[in-house]
Design a protein that fits this description.
The structure is a single chain. This protein has about 140 residues and is mainly α. It has one domain: Butyryl-CoA Dehydrogenase, subunit A, domain 3, CATH 1.20.140. About 65% of the residues lie in helices and about 10% in strands. The protein is built from 5 helices and 2 strands. It is elongated, with a radius of gyration of 17 Å.
């Protein structure tokens, strides 16, 4: 049980570090009709938020909350309801992260890895729920 929770912590820690790097969000700015400027920013930067790209900041805040929740799940004896919350928040963060594509925003390789890490966190939380429901079976 503790191994799975450690994996969840490292999963969210990796997503957090990737979001803090300065090349997670790609902004294409057009100061004139003939000129475009490509600017790379962190998920935690307010710069994309002020240009209408609200998804990266929401994903960054959800990842921070999820990291704290996984840490609390490791330290305290967390139940099924706790991991349902973790799974729901992880799935919501993954959907929000992926929703940048249909809105015409550039999706970077870092964003794809962050999206996969968030989806893995949701899957791990669902697996943890299954293991909590089966207390008498052999658990790793």
């Amino acid at each position: 049980m503790e191994k799975r929770r450690l994996i969840g912590i490292f999963d969210m820690l990796a997503a957090f570090v990737l979001e803090a790097l300065p090349f997670g969000v790609k902004l294409v700015l057009a100061p004139s009709p003939d000129e475009t400027i490509v600017s790379m920013r962190s998920y935690f930067s307010l710069y994309p938020f002020f240009y209408g790209h609200i998804q990266p900041l929401i994903v960054a805040l959800l990842t921070s909350v999820l990291l704290v929740l996984w840490l609390c799940g490791m330290v305290f004896e967390a139940g099924e309801g706790f991991f349902k919350l973790v799974a729901a928040l992880s799935a919501a963060a993954a959907v929000i992260c992926f929703s940048q594509i249909p809105m015409g925003m550039s999706f970077t390789a870092v964003g794809a890895v962050i999206n996969l890490l968030l989806a893995a966190s949701a899957a791990l939380a669902i697996y943890e729920i299954r293991m909590i429901r089966r207390p008498n079976e052999n658990r790793n």
